[in-house]
Write a structure and sequence with these properties.
It contains one helix and 43 strands. It is mainly beta. The longest helix is centred in the first third of the chain and has 13 residues.
């Protein structure tokens, strides 16, 4: 029993997850999608419940917004009809100002187009403009936006594989994007990881054609610098996350099968050594990651074995060792395209696609069992393409995802903290108060720590009265107790959200 108790303490030190549930609401159809294009769904949320979804239908890019939990019924076109519109990207700041980029064909070249919409109340989008070289083919675009509205976009030159970027702001009639900057002269393979922090410093992560995994940073109004090699060879998929504090988490898979991670603290240009997250014999790809403001980190990947696959994950607190990799499902099957969201230490969520049943599934980290909760189906409509448009949450931790099925669909969940567990046991004893002028006594109470607790309330006689005191450590000494009196105390645990557990009773009798 003692061994189990210390194992639990170790887990709390790494990621102190509370009791919680995620309840998903029925899916909502955003469009019937009779002429939907593939690889063409994206969405973003501003943290306050305002969201915008994008999709391509009949070579036109459309948007639909959600306000106060309700999706509007009439999509708005962003682009004119054009050839080759694909892979839209969308990002949003805290006020709901929204930027979009997409790939289209203009004058025979594949170029990156952009448009924006300001505020929550606006319905119309700006005129689109080209942000990449209009006379060269581009591809693999990625977009992020800071909470205060600075956009950063990256893309590859199709001929050279070189990686470029531009920063964008909101102009009076159309977005204003800077002259493209070359990030690296390497030939880049696959998609790029991109993140931006509250100081508006961007970080990019990429894999070269030779297999090296590299990163560089772009200070606000600066140029790309401090290029670092995180893995010298065998790189495969990459994912990048940053939090509001400025910490950055890079995760990647190797062709040898391992999933690895490295970190860069706020204000530093030095990356940590790579940590291997996956177990021995892993065959990891399709990496996803998320980093919360409180440092809670999660990495997910698909692991393949004998023609089947499963979703695996690992968690940590920034700067600490990673927990051992865990399966998010009870057995192997056909699972792919994980997405992750770490909101805080009490809210870590995952989604993925079940390829056999063609549904979106979800799980969340259960702090009581130190395991991922049993997966649930988020969708009933059959997913027609493998990948969802990702996972976003509002400031309360409520998740939303969007995917493509017989139309474009969305589902949202409700996060509910159930509060911490009550202390499991406690003791009380009475002793003389050596410093009292009268024959008063001291009742000394102690109890076991509670999972998820940040403080404890001590009640005397009944929990219906105000607490006698609130303490942060699992002990309390009650002074000036008259001789011969039996005292009954009730101890409750309180989590970071103010949720209070049921009470532990401790009775102290005269010694």
């Amino acid at each position: 029993m003692k061994r189990k108790f210390f194992a639990l303490l170790s887990f709390i030190a790494l990621i102190p997850t509370l009791q919680a549930t995620i309840t998903w609401s029925p899916e909502v159809q955003l469009t019937s999608g009779s002429a939907l294009d593939f690889d063409a769904v994206a969405f973003a949320e501003n943290g306050s419940g305002y969201a915008v979804a994008l999709w391509v239908e009949s070579n036109v890019l459309y948007s639909l917004k959600r306000i106060d939990g309700t999706w509007e019924s009439s999509p708005v076109s962003i682009s004119p009809s054009g050839a080759g519109i694909t892979r839209p990207q969308i990002a949003m700041d805290a006020l709901g100002n929204t930027m979009a980029i997409w790939l289209t064909v203009v004058g025979g070249f594949s170029v990156i187009d952009s448009a924006y919409r300001t505020g929550i109340g606006s319905s119309s989008w700006s005129s689109p403009i080209i942000i990449s070289d209009p006379c060269r083919d581009s591809l693999s675009q990625t977009l992020v936006m800071s909470a205060t509205g600075l956009s950063v976009a990256t893309w590859k030159d199709a001929a050279t594989g070189n990686l470029y970027s531009s920063t964008g702001t909101f102009g009076p009639f159309f977005p204003i994007w800077s002259t493209p900057l070359q990030i690296t002269a390497d030939s880049v393979s696959g998609f790029t990881g991109l993140a931006i922090d509250a100081s508006q410093q961007a970080t990019a992560l990429w894999k070269t054609s030779a297999g090296a995994v590299k990163a560089a940073e772009l200070p606000f109004a600066g140029t790309w610098q401090n290029t670092a090699t995180l893995a010298a060879a065998n790189g495969q998929d990459v994912a990048l996350s940053a939090n509001g504090a400025g910490d950055v988490l890079a995760v990647w898979s190797l062709t040898t099968g391992a999933a690895q991670a490295a970190e860069k603290a706020a204000g530093s240009s030095v990356w940590s050594s790579a940590s291997t997250l996956s177990g021995v014999g892993a065959d990891a790809d399709q990496i996803a990651s998320s980093l919360a403001s409180d440092g809670s980190a999660v990495a997910l990947w698909r692991n393949q074995e004998l023609g089947q696959s499963i979703i695996q994950g690992a968690t940590s607190v920034f700067g600490s060792a990673w927990n051992s990799a865990a399966d998010l499902l009870p057995s192997y099957g056909s699972y792919s395209f994980p997405a992750a969201r770490a909101v805080s230490s009490q809210n870590v969520i995952a989604i993925w696609v079940d390829g056999t049943n063609r549904t979106v599934q979800s799980s969340y980290l259960n702090g009581l069992t130190e395991e991922w909760a049993s997966p649930v189906d988020v969708s009933t409509d059959l997913v027609t393409i493998g990948e969802t448009a990702g996972l976003q949450t509002d400031s309360s931790g409520n998740p939303t995802t969007v995917w493509q099925g017989s139309g474009v669909y969305s589902a949202s969940g409700t996060f509910a903290s159930l509060g911490p567990l009550a202390p499991a046991s406690g003791t009380g004893r009475q002793r003389a108060d050596r410093f009292a002028s009268q024959a008063d006594l001291i009742n000394t109470l102690s109890w076991q720590t509670s999972v998820g607790a940040v403080s404890y309330r001590v009640y005397l006689g009944s929990t219906s009265s105000p607490p006698l005191t609130t303490v942060t450590n699992p002990s309390f000494s009650h002074h000036r107790i008259p001789p011969g009196r039996t005292m009954t105390y009730y101890i409750t645990a309180v989590d970071i959200a103010g949720n209070e557990s049921s009470a532990l009773q401790i009775v102290v009798r005269p010694s």
